[in-house]
Amino acid sequence: MSTPRPPLSAQLVLSLFSSRWEMFWPDLIPSLESFLGRLESAGTPIPFSETTYYEAEFGTPLQRRLLAFEQLVPQERLREIKLWSHDLEQKYLRGGQRLFNLDPGLLTQERFVLATGKNFTHRIYLGDGVFADLTLIYQAGRWQTLPWTFRDYAAPVLQHQLTQLRLKYRAKLGIFDKSPVRTS
To answer: Which of 99, 101, 140, 161, by CA, is between 20 and 30 Å from 93?
Structure first.
């Protein structure tokens, strides 16, 4: 019999992409830090070319950047953070279009989960129009993709950045070895 208990807090990761960085970066950082705490790292921008879906709204060339914050967050905050990030996107509208897209995610030892407002077969409803998307799992010492994993999250460059964030996360938990985590 299992006994319900809260899980460990997670590493908050914001996936931010845009083609108009000069219009909001680094001015966006104080807004992020006012709600999420001190920004710990901003990953190297990664070209976002797996789809043309966002080009009409954001232009080209799109780049994705992973942002991580110093303070770990309770996992149940994912819904709240997604709603807040949506509001922040709206504050930066120019000509009725977003300057950037913010997708909050939670990185744990076992998985990486993104929040989204779009329903799909594998997504779990969290409330208030927000769904959790299990994007990657960590097994056997590396990230494992799933049939629905976005192509850019399956790419080595983005997984490398997530691995580095996972190592920092484990250090925050007091776990310093690089051995895989058992998930059963």
So the answer is: 161
Residue 60 to residues 14, 49, 68, 99, 105, Cα–Cα distance (Å): 20, 9, 24, 12, 24
Instruction: Give dist(CA 85, CA 73) in Å, integer.
Output: 15
- Residue 181: inside a domain: no
Q: How confident is the model at residue 45 (pLDDT cuts 50, 70, 90)?
A: very high
For the record, the structure tokens of 108 come out as: 């744990």
Show the domain range for 34: 11-172
Residue 115 half-sphere exposure toward CB, CA atoms < 13 A: 27
Residue 182 domain-assigned?
A: no
Write the single-letter amino acid at 92: Y
Provide the whole-model pTM.
0.92
Q: Quick one: 156 exposed, middle or buried, by C-beta within 10 A (0-12, 13-18, 19+)?
A: exposed
8 Å CB contact between 107 and 162: yes
What is the C-alpha to C-alpha distance for residues 184 and 177, in angstroms, rounded to an integer? 19
d(CA 131, CA 33): 24
- At 163, which helix (H) or strand (E)? helix 156-172
